[in-house]
Design goal:
This protein is of the alpha/beta class. It has 27 helices and 21 strands.
Length: 738
């Protein structure tokens, strides 16, 4: 984060080209500063080792253990037919368990000489199973001799740092490289203001870097981590606070609805009453719209909690006040869906300038990339003249050609698909910066919202509208209990017989070219878990075919996936929405936005291939009418696997916030943050978003105070440097995502 000249030295100058190349390619480390910020994942204590009893499968591990015995076997093989093949088997122990190491061929000579019984060493490799026993094949190893000067120096201190490593570069090699660059840590500029650091009893940055890489005690590690967590939280929150501060300085046009305008007319014709939550959140939005600086609000709500209704009322309020509103959707299917539902909800109020339109009606236009030239010209003209009060579209809205008469509000659906820069591009479309409302159906824990969407105020819709039915979810273990899967298809038939419809979701389309490289990889798989993992995910086209010929024969089965031409997709969705199709076999294109109240059942194939939040999103597509919903999660994963536990969690609760916590705890934070926004919000190295809630909240307060007192950070040059590094990285990542 604080890449300053001494730390900007390229690694290839310091470490030698081969190591530097692996670090750049596999770990993304390019400079001395990058390497200093590559922190140990954990520490081994002298004499207290990773328990061999707890080794994870299929992961690169580093263990410290003692050789119990070593045996050299000869055998005949295709390469060495005369019994000249050699295999060295070494058993190591750490008191808690034993582990077999194997070396073959020419690779046996060195370990045969060095790995004598009683020798202690660090071993690194990938844990695999052979003959039902764990083993490491051809592990890299480093002998722990207490005699040579260098080894004593290298392993000085009671704790051995274990670094996030790759197959190409073991942890101890990273450790050695760090010994080389560690003296540069003295040059690290400290981004924390002194008063803050002293007030919170945090150690200076150079000391924290030394202690994290060369701790003598556990207290050293604690001091270092506490300090480095603050750095990450604080620099990030300063970046967000400066964004909020800059936004608050921008002028915006206050937009207040007219008492007898479009919004009032719309509310009068609603066939139901708004929920308490919808009224409260609408109130927060209307208050924001009435101010003279731009609203920046995040609207979180479960699938089906009525976010679109809240957003539409905000758009109508802006049209009432003489402005235009734009709604940005991530896909064409979703843009068309929103356009259809908004025009249906508004009825004659959406027929501005047309016969039969209400007198205070406005026009609602759709703008997507695949529209024909004539329709597109027409839509652009309606926007430029102000004839259209509401426009719904995809990224096509951001293009240079699109001109608005007076853009007052931008609503962004599914924020994590839009980067900060795209939000900025849309802001530039108004005479003055428009108000911004961001909607997401992914429930985000408060801390993540503070970290990822820290430049937005948050509103939450947490109750479902009246008339929405509960959804029952069950895990279907297809491998252990095939009859459960047969029963699942019977349940789908029953729903259809009762006049309802069903979705079947698969992870893959199935029209990909078969990659010969991939086909060649299908060697004998070891366990059922491996088999389920290794076979390609089930595909829409295959499953649709099997179902139509088998368990769902006689039902009207159709297919929907992302690579179909937009018109075909739309036609399929229209038929499904009209009830002309019984079962829709689809990929996750249905995850966002398709609203078919008559669909009551969903079967998700290979459910273990989806994330927790994604399963929750998908499930929200059924039970949208008055009949109860059913969601069946089909998996071949064995009962004890982590994947099964994840599915059990999804089946056991409908609370999206609870699930998003589980999701965060099970996945690395980076994935969640990375998915949540393009940019470096995922560059957290020691900060854990769920565990460090207090630090994030405190850092947010401190950052707000620092920025309020000194928005340009004139008196904090080191903080500016750290901030520039963070924002450069963010820009770089944004450009890479393009």
């Amino acid at each position: 984060m604080d890449l300053v000249p001494a730390l900007e030295e390229p690694l290839k100058k310091v470490l030698g080209p081969a190591t530097a190349k692996v670090m750049a390619e596999h770990l993304g480390l390019h400079t001395v500063g990058d390497l200093l910020h590559h922190y140990p994942r954990r520490y081994e204590e002298r004499g207290q080792l990773t328990h061999l009893a707890d080794l994870p499968m299929d992961e690169h591990v580093t263990v410290v253990a003692q050789v119990a015995d070593a045996r050299l076997h000869t055998f005949a093989s295709a390469k060495a037919p005369r019994g000249k093949g050699q295999r060295l088997e070494v058993t190591i122990t750490d008191g808690s368990g034993r582990l077999q190491l194997v070396f073959f061929g020419a690779g046996v000579h060195k370990p045969h000489k060095e790995l004598l019984p009683g020798t202690r060493a660090m071993f690194a490799g990938k844990v695999s199973v052979f003959n039902r026993r764990l083993q490491l094949a051809h592990p890299a190893y480093e002998l722990l001799r207490g005699d040579t000067e260098e080894t004593v120096e290298t392993w000085a201190g009671a704790l051995i740092p274990i670094y996030p490593a790759t197959a190409k570069l073991e942890s101890w090699k990273i450790g050695k490289a760090l010994q080389t660059v560690l003296p540069s840590a003295q040059e690290a500029l400290d981004p924390l203001p002194e008063s803050l650091r002293e007030g919170r009893g945090l150690v200076p940055l150079p000391e924290a870097l030394l202690k994290i890489h060369r701790p003598h005690t556990k207290a050293d590690v604690e001091d270092a981590r506490a300090r480095l967590k603050w750095d990450e939280a604080f620099v990030l929150q300063v970046a967000l606070a400066r964004r909020r501060h800059a936004d608050a300085q921008l002028p915006a046009v206050a937009r207040r609805p007219r008492p007898d305008g479009l919004l009032a007319a719309f509310d009068d014709r609603l066939p139901f009453t708004l929920t308490e939550g919808q009224r409260k959140v609408s109130g927060e939005i209307f208050d924001d719209l009435a101010t003279e600086h731009p609203m920046h609000r995040l609207l979180q709500g479960e699938v089906g909690s009525g976010k679109t209704m809240v957003a539409l009322r905000a758009m109508l309020a802006v049209v009432d006040a003489g402005g235009q509103a734009a709604m940005l959707a991530p896909t064409e299917v979703l843009a068309q869906q929103h356009h259809r539902s908004v025009t249906e909800m508004m009825g004659e109020l959406a027929e501005g300038g047309m016969l039969g339109g209400a007198e205070n009606a406005t026009k609602v236009v759709l703008l997507t990339g695949s529209m024909g030239a004539a329709a597109r010209r027409h839509a652009l003209l309606d926007l430029a003249t102000g004839e259209a009060g509401i426009v719904i579209g995809t990224h096509a809205l951001i293009e240079d050609k699109v001109q608005f008469h007076d853009l007052g509000l931008v609503v962004v659906d599914e924020q994590h698909r839009f980067g900060v820069e795209q939000r900025d591009a849309l802001r530039g479309k108004g005479k003055r910066p428009p108000h911004l409302l961001v909607m997401t159906a992914t429930p985000i824990p408060r801390t993540v919202a503070m970290t990822v969407f820290g430049d937005l105020e948050t509103s939450v819709l947490d109750q479902l509208p009246a008339g929405r039915s509960p959804i029952a979810s069950h895990v279907v273990p297809a491998a252990d209990k095939p009859h459960f899967l047969a029963r699942a298809w019977e349940r789908v038939r029953e729903e259809v017989t009762n006049g309802h419809q069903a979705y079947v979701v698969c992870p893959r389309i199935g029209d990909e070219e078969d990659d010969p490289k991939k086909a060649g990889r299908k060697k004998a798989a070891a366990s059922p878990e491996d088999e389920a993992e290794k076979r390609p995910p089930l595909a829409v086209l295959d499953i649709a075919d099997q179902l139509a010929k088998g368990p769902l024969q006689g039902l009207r089965v159709e297919v929907l996936h992302g690579r179909m031409p937009p018109d075909d997709k739309d036609a399929v969705m229209r038929r499904f929405a009209a009830g002309e199709t019984d079962v829709l076999v689809a990929t996750t294109v249905i995850e966002v936005g398709v609203n078919v109240p008559n669909a009551t059942a969903m079967v998700i194939m290979d459910a273990d291939r989806f994330g927790v939040s994604q399963l929750h999103q998908l499930r929200g597509r059924v039970g949208r009418g008055s009949a109860p919903g059913l969601c069946l999660l089909v998996t071949e994963m064995p009962e004890a696997s982590a994947a099964r536990q994840r599915l059990d969690a999804v089946a056991s609760t409908l609370d999206g916030f609870e699930l998003s916590r589980i999701d965060l705890e099970q996945r690395r934070e980076g994935d969640v943050l990375g998915q949540a926004q393009s940019g470096t919000r995922s560059s957290l190295r020691v900060l854990a978003v769920i565990d460090d809630e207090e630090i994030i909240a405190e850092a947010r307060e401190e950052a707000a105070a620092v920025v309020a007192a000194d928005p340009e950070l004139k008196h904090l040059p080191a903080l500016r440097t750290a901030l520039d590094a963070l924002l450069d990285e963010e820009r770089e990542q944004y450009l890479e995502k393009g």
